[in-house]
Each structure stands twice: as C-alpha cells, then as structure tokens.
Amino acid sequence: MRILIVEDESRSREFLIKGLRESGFAVDGAEDGDEGLSLAEEVDHDLIVLDVMLPGKTGWQVLEKLRALGRETPVLFLTARDAIEDRVRGLELGADDYLVKPFAWVEFLARVRALLRRGPVKQMESSGIADLELDLRRMKAKRGKNVIDLTAKEFQLLSLLVRRTGEVLSRTTIAELVWDMNFSTESNAVDVAMGRLRRKVDEPFERKLIHTQRGLGYVLEDRDED
C-alpha cells in the first residue's frame, strides 16, 4: 500500500517516512501544499497524511481541491492545530481522521492501519432540501429546473448549510468553517455574504429555505413561515 506524507517540517516528514517504510508501506513525501496536491493528483495513493499549515496551499485547500475533483483517497490530518473548530473544519471538508501533534507513534500507526482497512469512503455526489439540489462534485446548484449561479465561496457556504440542515449555525461557526477566520462582533462579513446567497437561492422563489434565527445565526430548513 502507498501512503503520501505532506509535511513541511523536514525532521517530522523524514521520521514519518522512515517509520512507515519500516512498517512495510511504500511512502512518498511532499514538503508543501502545492507539491502534495500535484503528487496526490498524479499518483494513486491508498492514504494521505496531511499537515494543515503548509507553504503554498494549506492542508485545508489541498483537501478541498481533492474532494472537488472527486478523489476519495482517505485523508488523515496530522497537525498541531488542536482547536475544536479546526477538527470540525477538517471533518466538514472531507477528512477521515484528525490526530494532533505531539502524538504517540503506536497510535498514529494504528490510525493509519484502521483507515487503510476501511478504504475510501465514497463522498456524496448530491444533496439538497425541498426543491434545492446541490451537485457536490461539479459544484452546481439549482432549484427545480432553475440553475443558480454561485461563486465558489457561495457554494461552500450553501453546502455547509445543506449538510447541517435544521441546525442553527452561529456567525462565528460559519466564519471559521467557510472563511477560516476568527469572527469579530464588529464585522458584518457573514451577514453580507448570507444576504447575497439569499438573493440568489431564496429571493426569486416563493418558498424560502434560509432563515435568520435572531440572536443566534442562520438555519436552512423547509418550513412554512420565517
């Protein structure tokens, strides 16, 4: 089985490569996000071990690109970022596991073997609610027969709402998961983006799906009244 290690810290990368090779795996290494993405696209790996904070493309961006391309290779995030928001974001983007540094080698190896036994988990190709349908592979959205023209960020925002249908998402959560930024109470960036999205997804249609939960955030659900 072949594993790709994407890690910019040379000692850590060589340690992982050496340990996995001694455990019987074929291993490729990359020192930044761009090289890692290129190798992941060119070579058929059974598992990708991915740091988050990388030169070039971040681990978030590498994973997002791979999933957008329909690549279902299992991904294990291995990173010093231990905040709950980081773990949630990794899993939301399609990661299969998340291990925080520093770690015990035996636990790392156990997680690697568990992911390899499981194999690729097929990502959903489509999702939706009521007459709203998302094509997750092609990043397309439509309501009924009407195609909705969304930017990449608007699609990411809408897909987050769809995946969490019925759950009220705070502005802080939305900012962290979609823009990878800390939300300032003085900023209206999330409200502005949500306003643009609602004008495209809801305004032209009688039935509204995106609702404001006053004082809490936003929720996507099919209901009779806002």
Structural summary, described in words:
It holds the Pfam family Response_reg. Keywords: DNA-binding, Phosphoprotein, Transcription, Transcription regulation, Two-component regulatory system. GO terms for molecular function: phosphorelay response regulator activity; transcription cis-regulatory region binding. This is Response regulator. With 226 residues, this protein is α/β, with parallel strands linked by helices. It has two domains: 117 residues, Rossmann fold, CATH 3.40.50; 95 residues, Winged helix-like DNA-binding domain superfamily/Winged helix DNA-binding domain (Arc Repressor Mutant, subunit A), CATH 1.10.10.10. It contains eight helices and eleven strands. The strands form three sheets. A five-stranded parallel beta sheet has the order 2-1-3-4-5, with helices on both faces. α2 packs parallel to α3 and α4 packs across α7. The model has no long low-confidence stretch (mean pLDDT 86).
